[in-house]
Amino acid sequence: MNFYTKTQLGLADFRVWSYEAVERYVIAVHQAWAYVEEQLVRTRSAPVRCYGDVIRRHRDDHAAAWLRAAVEQGIRTGDVEAVLKLFLRQAS
Is residue 70 classed exposed, middle or buried when 0-12, 13-18 and 19+ CB atoms within 10 A define those classes? Predict the structure, then answer.
């Protein structure tokens, strides 16, 4: 858990923050890690064997949802450039 907390969730870079900021960040990191732990227990199977698999699956789910929303909006509006600007946060 310590390895993932520092490397994947960013807790290693806290030295210049105020005590209150560190405290809030630690709470957020622990909540995120609790989610990862729960998902590992809930979905443990051949393709999900470790924490990295849970994190990868979560990222893939978000990427699929993002792409689906972009494609659906493109189909609905027919304006590819507007969809690209919205989903890629390009300046107008």
Answer: middle
CA angle 72, 82, 89 (to 5 degrees): 95
Residue type for position 19: Y
Domain boundaries, the chain: 2-87
- DSSP code at position 25: H
Per DSSP, the three-state class of 36 is helix
**Residue 16: both structure tokens together:** 């210049």
- Return the pLDDT at 11: 66
Distance CA 3, CA 9 (A): 9
Structure-derived torsion over alpha carbons of residues 38, 44, 62, 73, reported in degrees to the nearest 10: -120
Task: Write out pLDDT tens, residues 17-44.
Answer: 778 877 888 888 889 999 999 999 999 8
Q: Which residues contact 78 (CB under 8 A, 6 or more apart)?
A: none
